[in-house]
Amino acid sequence: MKAVILAGGLGTRIAEESDTKPKPMVEVGGRPLLWHIMKTYSHHGVNEFVICLGYKGYVIKEFFFNYYRHTSDLEINLKTGEHRVLNTQSEDWKVTLVDTGADTMTGGRLKRIAPYLDNETFCLTYGDGLSDIDITKELAFHRANKKLATVAAVQPPGRFGVLNIDAKRHVSSFEEKPSDEIGWINGGFFILELKAIDYIEGDATSWEREPLGKLAQDGQLAAFQHTGFWQPCDTLRDKRELEKLWDSGKAPWQVWDR
Predict the structure, then answer these.
(1) Total tally of structural domains belonging to the chain
(2) Region 125-129 average pLDDT
C-alpha cells in the first residue's frame, strides 16, 4: 500500500517557520512533521510514500536525498572523497517525490500523482497533522464499508469555554473547552480507491470542496471516527505544544519505538 502526503502548501499561519521551509518540514523533536507522519504509517506496514511537492519542494527533496547519509555513521577520506558507511538507522521506505505545482490546489495535487498509484487502494493525508490513529483498523473499516473514500473524523479540542444561557440570560452551566464544541471534522488520514480521483476536475479543484461533497452525495464517503489524539500544527503555539509533548517522552502520536 502507498500513502500520499500533501506537502505543497504555504503554511502562512506559521510564517515564522514556513518563510524558509515548507510547512511539513517544521520540526518537532528535531524531526520534520512529515517524518513523524511517515513513521505513523510505517508502524502500520505502509512503507511506500508519494509526496506532493509545491512551495519550496526542493527542501523536501534535499532532506530525503541526503537522509541515508544523515542517519548513518560514516568514514570519509577527505583527500579522495571516498567514504564508507559504518552503521545506519535509515528506514526501509520508498519515497516518490513529485512536483505538483506551486499554485495547485489539494485536489489537483492528488490528480497529478494518480499515475504513481498502481490502480490500488491508497492512503492520503496532510503533511501537518499528527495523530495516534490506528491505520490498520481504519483500513479494515474502509474495506468492510466498500465505499470509494473513508475519512478520519475527529473532534478537535475546544479553544474556548462554553456558556449555556437560559431564557432569563442566566448562565445555567459552564463547560471549559469541550471536545465536542463543533462536532466531527475532517481529520485527514483518508483511505481511497483510485476511482475517487475521478471526482477531481483539475489543478484548481480543492479536494475538501467539490470532490468530498460529491462523494458524500453519491453515498461513497464513510467516516472512521477517531477519538484518540489528533493535532494539526497550524501555528507557532501548536508547534510549542507538540514540542512539549515530545520532550516529555509521552507524545501520544509516537506509536513506534524511539
Answers:
(1) 1
(2) 96
Crossing angle for the helix pair 135-145 and 33-43, nearest 10 degrees?
60
Query: What residues contact residue 177 under an 8 Å CB cut-off, 6+ apart?
Result: 157, 158, 159, 160, 161
Task: Give this prediction's pTM.
Answer: 0.88
For residues 5-12, average pLDDT: 84
CA 202 to chain CA centroid, nearest Å? 22
Name the DSSP class of 150.
E
Is 120 exposed, middle or buried, given 0-12, 13-18 or 19+ CB atoms closer than 10 A?
exposed
What CATH number does residue 219 fall under? Answer: 3.90.550.10
Please tell me the number of Cα atoms within 13 Å of 242 on its side-chain side: 26
**DSSP structure string for 213-251:** HHHHHTT-EEEEEE-S-EEE--SHHHHHHHHHHHHTT--
Whether 258 is in a domain gets the answer no
- Beta-carbon contacts of 92 under 8 Å, excluding residues fewer than 6 positions away, are 47
Task: State which residues form the domain around 235.
Answer: 2-149+184-247
